[in-house]
């Protein structure tokens, strides 16, 4: 069973011969990238304003099992991408180990730092491409939030747009560190969407901000790995491939981490304020 799984996820000709190009890959142009992000933001704003104008005094719309189905789908997609890129990375290490010995490169260094001249083709980049496409499915949660809660989160719009943009850069510039980034991110999504499915079907939720905590842990791991990439870039002869895109990626990650920490601290302070005796009555009235 493991061998069959390894074949379908890392050894099929369509995976081995994958190439990020205009003829073989859908959605790989800069025009598509900017158009899709702009359409996502504009439609989110339009839907939010439309509901405020037409259905201002109505209760939030119930979507039934749709959010739960979406969460379960993202769990399965994240698990598939995690397993696929794990098998593919192992296959790439096996097939190119002889080449790395000439440059004194270890498998762990390769995970952080691609050699100069790396092209966006092969097994690993196939799953990077699937991961890039899956980013668009994540944006559906924005519309669920608008329909269910009548709220539009600026952070959610910014975060989803930046993540789509970064995934595109990984492929366009064969950026280093993307293998570990995809492994960490899909593992985090597997846990987060599993929790969302758990709560969507009516099971009890955690007593702390579970999703925000997972996102902070993920970004913290990314920061540690980014430090490793920077050290390897200056230590290795020739440096790491796609370092320009990596610098831009690091800046965007830092911005997301800052916004998330700010949101986390404000939410924590807000909860503490609500729990004080003088604000308890007003908090209850707001909840009602």
TrEMBL record:
GO terms for biological process: fatty acid elongation, monounsaturated fatty acid; fatty acid elongation, polyunsaturated fatty acid; fatty acid elongation, saturated fatty acid; sphingolipid biosynthetic process; very long-chain fatty acid biosynthetic process. One of its GO terms (molecular function) is fatty acid elongase activity. It comes from the Eukaryota. The keyword Acetylation does not apply. It is a multi-pass membrane protein. The chain crosses the membrane at residues 30-55, 67-91, 152-171, 177-195, 207-231, 243-265. It is found in: Membrane. Keywords: Fatty acid biosynthesis, Fatty acid metabolism, Lipid biosynthesis, Lipid metabolism, Membrane, Transferase, Transmembrane, Transmembrane helix. Pfam families: ELO. This is Elongation of fatty acids protein 3-like. It comes from Nicotiana tabacum. The lineage of its organism: Eukaryota, Viridiplantae, Streptophyta, Embryophyta, Tracheophyta. The gene is LOC107826684.
